[in-house]
Records
---
Amino acid sequence: MVYERYGGPERLELREVARPVPSTGQVLVEVVATAINLSDWEGLRGSPGYARIGGLFRPKRTVLGSDIAGRVVAVGEGVTRFAVGDDVFGDNLALLGGFAEYCVAPESALSPKPVELSFAEAATIPQAGAIAAQAAALAAPGSRMLVNGAGGGSGSFLVQLARSAGVHVTAVDNAGKLGFLRALGADEVIDYRQADFTRTGPYDLIVDLVARRSIFAYRRALAAGGRCVVVGGTSRTVLRMVTVGPLLGRLTGRHLGLLLVRQGPAGFAPVADLCAEGRIDIHIDRTFPLEEVGEALAWHGEGRAKGKVVVMVGSE
């Protein structure tokens, strides 16, 4: 599924293209499933502005899709961790290409797929799981955490991880997801259309997955010594978190900044293990075929998905 200009799903076109060839340190994966992330929606639209890094006027990579699960069908020179026939999954954020029958990925981005998980389930974990695990690690047992955008992929993992660690979780999303959030284990839920969560609290940790508030509003909702981290959101909010956030934090005794997510299997494999053991649930809201990637992106990007959206490219 190719796009050559930024815009909506109408920019996508299903094409026959040459099968990619893995170079040194890469493997060729026959894609079975790929999960939608907010980064895919942003990359399609070229918005916020940081989504255009590397391709200001046209996308640098014309095939989106970073979270992949599939089978290794060829390996490049120097590959030692995988062989043809291995089942793998991972976040191919550097090269993308998951919305296709085949894609190349660095072997360092992949991990063996747990046998207990289907390809669809494994595809949901890499990016969302890494974000959730590293955000949850910032919360101490007994502390109060608020998660904005909690009903999506990262949020659904984060709520569960935090609750299992003894954290009191307030989950924020639209009214249609509040029941889902309660089922995940959230202690309290807030419909962001009805209440301003920055006027609640105070919280020891705020994780905003769709940040668009002022840094002063975040500071207002934090307890003394508290922390607010954002993962995605408007360019203005992200820029102010990077520039003004540290200064405001020093002046007020709070920490405001970005969650810098560690990429690679070390970030997501522990979450996959928890899912394989049945300690964390995977929630797949909908699955779409490759021909309907546009619809899948819109369903996720417009905030309608409860948990993850998966595109099935091949057969389990």
Note: The chain has nine helices and 13 strands.
---
Amino acid sequence: MSGPEDEALARAAVDALTGQLALLPKPGLPDPRDLSARTTRVDHCSLRWSARALAPGLVAMAAAARRTGEPTPRLRAELGAIGRCTEHSVALAGGGHRGALWALGLLVAAAALDPGAAAPDIAAAAKRIAAHPDKRAPRRPSRGSSVSAKYGAAGARGEARAGFPHVRRALDALAAARSAGATEPQARLDALLTVMSTLQDTELLHTAGPLGLRHVQAGARGVLEAGGTATEAGRQALAALDTDLHARVWSPRGSAGLLAGALFLDSLPLPVSSRARARARAA
């Protein structure tokens, strides 16, 4: 049985995903201003609709974690089974979000294991869950795992087993941009670019190869080195990168899913100890 706590975590995760979708311009990613999907495989409206189809599965994942109480192999297998059912529901609703479901599902489950935990502790718990193999998973390799094996990239599984380092970098980028006076959309775009600048995105490796991936990483670094999206130079660099990636039909979807994970953790209430430290700094 699920409870209100599970529903709240699922709602926060879906809100994080739709919040990521609403950002613009997102280089190479669906733009809420473009409803034609001329340059993307799945249009923005479909992605928003299908994001909400994640909610029942995320509720079930949170409930499974709360019921199990530990990051055990049994929990990992149950999360995998729920995830596969949720993928089917999302496909019926329009598709997309497979990478985001993996990241958000693990983080939601980890948050349910220890309500009120700080973001680094939730990421560490997700790492412990992901360390267990899913013995019930289909034996045929996914496209992401095939690309990871071909190029030696960590991929989504490696990111989770490392404790979501890019989610943590995105959280740091959010905090730094906000402290520097950026607006919330600018802070979120800077966090996305921070992830893009170093992530070995298997979607990009599949469509653009290693040279294309390095091109995207360099473009993201260029925006940040120009001062980020809060500066005129940074906004111009972002617009150029966005035009370039849409023209090439290169989509850093892995980075977008990890930004959603960061926004989910960022939305959770701070632990009491963290609130006390924040008040002490403000004083």
Note: Residues 35-41, 273-283 have pLDDT under 50 and may be disordered.
